[in-house]
What we know:
Chain A has 442 residues and is of the alpha/beta class. Chain A is 28% helix and 20% strand. Chain A contains 14 helices and 17 strands. Chain B has 2 domains: 121 residues, no CATH class; 131 residues, no CATH class. In chain B, α2 crosses α4 and α14 packs antiparallel against α15. The interface between A and B is large, with 77 and 44 residues.
Amino acid sequence: MLKTFPKGGIHPPENKLTSTKGIKKMPVPKMVYVPISQHIGIPAEIIVNVKDNVEIGQVIAKSGGFVSSNVHSPVAGVVTKLDKVIDTSGYKKQCIVIRTDAKNESNFEDISYSLKKDITMAPKDILQRINDYGIVGLGGATFPSHVKLSLKEGTVLDHLIINGVECEPYLTADHRLMIEKAEEILVGIKILMFALHVDKAIIGIENNKKDAIDIFKKLTKNENGIKVAALQVKYPQGGEKQLVRALLNREVPKNGLPLDVGVIVHNVGTIYAIYQAIQHNKPLTERVVTVTGKQLKNASNYWVKIGTPISDLINEVGGLPEGTRKIVNGGPMMGKAIKNLDVPVTKGTSGILVISEDEASRGEPKNCIRCGECIYVCPMGLEPHLLMNLSEKGMYEKASSEDIMTCIECGSCSYVCPSNRPLLDYIRFGKNIVKKLNSAKN
Amino acid sequence: MSTQPIIVSGSPHVHSDRTSKKLMYDVIIALLPAFLVSIYVFGISALIVTSVAITSCILFEYVIQKYLLKTSVTITDGSALLTGILLAFNLPSNLPIWMVIVGGLVAIGIAKLSFGGLGFNIFNPALVGRVFLLVSFPVQMTMWPTAIENNTTVIDAVTGATSLGVIKEGLQYGETMTEISSRIPSTISMLLGFTGGSLGEMPALALLLGGLYLIIRKVISWHIPVVMLTTMAVMTGIFWFLDPQHYANPIIHILSGGAILGAFYMATDLVTSPMTKKGMVIFAIGIGVITVVIRLFGAYPEGVSFAILIMNAFVPLINKYFKPRRFGSKIKAKIV
């Protein structure tokens, strides 16, 4: 019996249409729009001016504090504007607009680095570089990686967990990366183990990616302390708390972090970015994006420069199909619907999903029939129907005491509700207000 | 690019194909085998009572919502249809038609719509309808056509009490179970449903088949039916073990008096049962205990309907105190 987390979860159709499609290189865009806030925390501070020439990998916005991250130029070119552009949140955010220099060869050279296994940097320098090179969690949360890795004196850490779960339907970016860059990821894992002085690592992969599991099993056969664990397919297993529970049978305390139970979790994409930064001196300026949808002609996985407008990606796969009604940045369960195709790819963009009419519109909400399905599927042990009710009625204190803030917004409740009730919409709304009330109190 | 606007909404952007309508129709499908047995046993009168109950429930819902409450009409969601079927299943097949209609009015008008409609009712509508009729017309509600004579005819002249009624009466006149047992149907006929009783409460096997379907389709969970029937079996078993001459054995109790219909189809009503498994267990134990107490020591030979309605009243309280365990509320494993 394969491992999984015991409480809640759902099995949406997987629709991994692009799992056999190799990662292609997206052509270098003519213009890139690089937001200064692509991570959770304080936005970075712009340190370039209009008309400045920038090189690939040059810092163009500097980390604004501890929980923040540097932003690097993904192309060589000229800064044309410092402008506000609508990003995935739907709000206008500060961006650095760079026109790619069509004559600069470094924009188009295709360097294939050879695998570099030896780790030559000291632990302290490794952590510093992860900070300097703008590495954030690429699984979607975009939490600055160096913050996770900065251990306080006396912290007990015994396991590094590598998140290769990719439980979101449709998305295959991590899957392809694990197949194509397995050795590099393994080196990345060793770099982190070395830097953190931890001797056990587990790579968690769901069983719908058997090829990736096989590759890592073969690679780690003679590795001491690095294990591969096949997991049952169940959403939201990619959630940190669910993954730690599934792999180690440890429950991260309420409002706590995996570190409270001696674990640090990193996504495979992040591990690869760390490998690139440490071994090949490459800051985070590109990532793998799955461009997918049932109606798309050439759905595939792509290496995409940060700041590439999503319209470029859509054009690359043959344009928006007839009848497109929804475009999602991310997967269908947790991704954000966008209206505007000028939205740029950021460090957190794991996929672009194009949805047609039949799946795009929601059914009409009906009365709650108190079936309790939302309670059974909630991986956090919450009562979504109750939280929705409390948010709707403005009873935020009560919602807070019913643990609304521990909701991970996985959407399982809304997914199963037979009455089509917008459970997560109201819970999200309630969370925002509770957050404001709490910060007003402090 | 299409001319229709792009939709922007919060995640998730996909939805399971479960709808409340489908859940209702699954229950209706599950009730079909029992309905067929009932038509076979009681003849066309079963069909008439059921059609009248369904029609009156749907019609009352339509009229009340459209002309009295002036809200949107929800007769297509399958819930009024289901209430009608369940009401009919709880009535004798020879009940005067106008009483069936009154039952439908009470079920839909009082038990369901006056509380706010689907999802807001505290008590199971069909059971409220039945109990209303039972206390208003006790004679008509406890005279059932006996099965054998009525096999394929429309006549409902021959009437008799149910097994539990016979036992209760016999015990009151000082008879022992050995003397009574010749007058109650065999276990086999109880399983197949060839006994007297309400329209849909007797065919135990057919009801179990439907119940199994509901559990497999995940419309209901096993907790309520299994715990409720087990509680009844254990409790009646203890009394029977101590004094087999004055208490019927657990098999008779389980197979008669609507215990199975109640356990799988009435107590499990999504709206009026608890929302967590822990709550369901408490709820089901409560129903089991109250049923047995009424049957053994109360004035009525049967107690399932009353027991379910009584426990329905406790559901909000049960939901309040039996919550799911919050993730991370206690640390499961310390670091080794």
